[in-house]
Design goal:
Blueprint lengths: L13 H13 L12 H15 L3 E5 L2 H13 L2 E7 L6 E6 L12 E3 L8 E2 L13 E6 L2 E4 H7 L3 E7 L1
Antiparallel strand pairs: 1-3, 2-3, 4-8, 5-8, 6-7, 6-8
Length: about 160
């Protein structure tokens, strides 16, 4: 005959596992969890979603980098206006979106190239054209935030932040 099945001590029952999980979470105490947030990607998502729904304006939290990127969007005609509003920690950027005659959003697509997990740096000689020249690439260079055309002219390479078409 076969020996009777036993539950080994090294295995836990489901109830014990759930109880242990709750204890370990509550006793986490002074462990700090840091969440890294990609604010530029959030801004691009807000712009795309607002344009897809047909909104006239969008609001995003203020930062100097976002404002510089939006100035490049403004020069290229992807947005109508970007204005800083509010004071100190409550500052926001109000973006007025741009549409064509048919009511189609000016931004067809935005792609984040250099991410938090993988930075992409390109010398000015290796900058490629976006959407056969109809789109732009935005770079962070030693001479400031520039679009690809200006970076070639200034002979400045740098981190490719995004491509817009």
């Amino acid at each position: 005959m076969r020996p009777q099945a036993r539950i080994y001590e090294r295995f836990w029952t489901l109830q014990d596992l759930l109880q242990r999980a709750c204890e370990s979470r509550s006793s986490a105490g002074n462990k700090k969890i840091f969440m890294v947030k990609d604010t530029l990607s959030d801004m691009f998502t807000i712009i795309k979603n607002a344009g897809a729904v047909g909104k006239e304006r969008a609001q995003i939290p203020y930062s100097k980098l976002k404002m510089d990127v939006l100035k490049v969007f403004l020069k290229s005609g992807f947005i109508k206006d970007a204005a800083k509003k509010g004071k100190k920690s409550k500052r926001i950027i109000e973006i007025t979106l741009s549409y064509d005659k048919n009511g189609k959003h000016a931004v067809t697509g935005i792609k984040r190239i250099s991410k938090l997990s993988r930075r992409v740096y390109v010398p000015y000689k290796k900058l490629r054209y976006v959407a056969q020249g109809y789109g732009i690439a935005i770079l962070s260079t030693p001479k400031g935030i520039l679009r690809d055309k200006e970076a070639r002219k200034e002979r400045a390479g740098g981190e490719v932040l995004c491509e817009v078409w």
